[in-house]
Every structure is written in structure tokens, then in C-alpha cells.
Design brief:
CATH class: Alpha Beta
CATH architecture: 3-Layer(aba) Sandwich
Number of helices: 7
Oligomer: single chain
Strand content: 25-35%
Number of domains: 1
Length: about 230
């Protein structure tokens, strides 16, 4: 199995305060993994450590072939190119169309050829069922549609791992299921996904490997068979 993420005896700090300690986990290529836990148990700090927003100061950690302990400021943009990050609040640029939002990311990561850019945008929009919406502005789309676009954006550079931080947090139950279906399809196509969520209904509907944050620890939860 090819590992895309592992942490060994790792501790995560926010400033001086210890958020999570003795983390020992691994995620292999192609897995769909949930990260659960109450608000304030360290899910966001954990995610931030994975994409280089918080430094890993104790223990070992590697993500998509980057050593988190040795990560330099200049490495972070390159790390993030190998990750697809989906946030709860979409983070779309409101003053430009969906196509322009996606083109902006591709150009920022070194894509030059207009035809290549257009083809890639069409491809990712197709994957999330939004192929006809590229000319619209974010405010013209529903929350669920905006989150689909955010997922499409995360897919642009063929990431080795998608980090989804509460991607259904702002959505109603029906829309959450639709967004979840999109993530499931992407996972079946071979993308590895780590999804932080507090929506336990989704875990029951789409059971998968689950990590739980609790008492300054992260551990794997063994799901009982229904």
C-alpha cells in the first residue's frame, strides 16, 4: 500500500498549548477517511498542520512525500499543489465567474496554454456535475453548487490527497448527501480523501475508516456492523 500520510508520535500545538498528542496514524492511497470529534477537539488544528498552516514541532510526519517536520515556508506552495483543499465556506472569488475562479488557480500553479486550461476546467466541472455553470458567478449558485465548484477546484491539479474540512457544514441534509455523492465518486476514481465532519448521519450512510479526535488524542474508531 502506498502511504499518502503518516504521523508517528506526533504532537500538535497551537502556540504554546498542546492540542493533540501522540498521534500515530496512516492513510493509504485510495482510502476515504473521516475525521470526527466535537468542536474544539483539534480537528481544524490537525488539518492546518497537514497543509502547512501550523508547524509540526514534535514527532514525525509525512504527507504526499513532504516531511512535515522539515517543511520550510518556501515548500508550502508546492505541498499545497499536491493537496486539494475544500473548506466549509467555499472560499470562491466572488468578483469572477466560476471558469475564471478555476482558471485563476491553474495559472497560479503554472498552466499557460489557454486550450489546456479550458479543457481541464471542463473536465473537473464535468466530474462534479457542474459543466453548464462555468459562466455563472458564485452568488448565482446555491450553497451545494458552490461546494461542488470548490471540490472541482480542489481536483484541478490531480491532487494526491484531498483534505475536506467540514465540506457539508453549511449545507442542509439533502444537499449534504449530494455533495457526499460527489466525494464518493471522486474517491472511486482513485482520489484519496480525508474529510473532517461532525455530521454523523453521513458516517452511517457512507461507512468508512474513521479517526476520532477526543481528549487530546486521535485514534481509529472501529465501526460496528449494522
Amino acid at each position: 500500500m502506498q502511504q499518502v500520510l503518516y504521523l508517528k508520535d506526533a504532537s500538535i500545538f497551537q502556540g504554546d498549548s498542546l492540542v493533540l498528542s501522540d498521534i500515530n496514524i496512516e492513510i493509504n492511497k485510495g482510502e476515504f477517511v473521516y475525521l470526527i470529534g466535537k468542536t474544539g477537539t483539534g480537528k481544524s488544528s490537525f488539518m492546518k498542520t497537514l497543509y502547512g498552516d501550523l508547524p509540526l514541532t514534535k514527532g514525525e510526519g509525512e504527507i504526499v512525500d513532504f516531511n512535515l517536520k522539515a517543511l520550510k515556508e518556501k515548500d508550502i506552495p508546492f505541498l499545497r499543489r499536491k493537496l486539494g483543499i475544500v473548506f466549509q465556506d467555499f472560499k470562491l472569488l466572488t468578483d469572477r465567474t466560476i471558469n475564471d475562479n478555476l482558471a485563476f488557480v491553474l495559472k497560479a500553479t503554472g498552466w499557460k496554454d489557454k486550450n489546456d486550461i479550458k479543457a481541464r476546467i471542463d473536465e473537473v466541472l464535468d466530474k462534479v456535475g457542474m459543466k453548464t455553470k462555468g459562466f455563472k458567478f458564485p452568488h448565482e449558485l446555491s450553497g451545494g453548487e458552490q461546494q461542488r465548484i470548490a471540490i472541482a477546484r480542489a481536483l484541478l491539479n490531480n491532487p494526491e490527497l484531498i483534505l475536506a474540512d467540514e465540506p457539508t457544514g453549511n449545507l442542509d441534509p439533502q444537499t449534504s448527501v449530494e455533495v457526499m455523492e460527489v466525494l464518493q465518486d471522486i474517491n472511486k476514481n482513485g482520489n484519496t480523501i480525508l474529510m473532517a465532519t461532525h455530521d454523523y448521519a453521513l458516517l452511517l450512510k457512507y461507512p468508512s475508516k474513521t479517526l476520532k479526535c477526543d481528549d487530546n488524542q486521535i485514534y481509529e474508531v472501529v465501526q460496528r456492523k449494522q
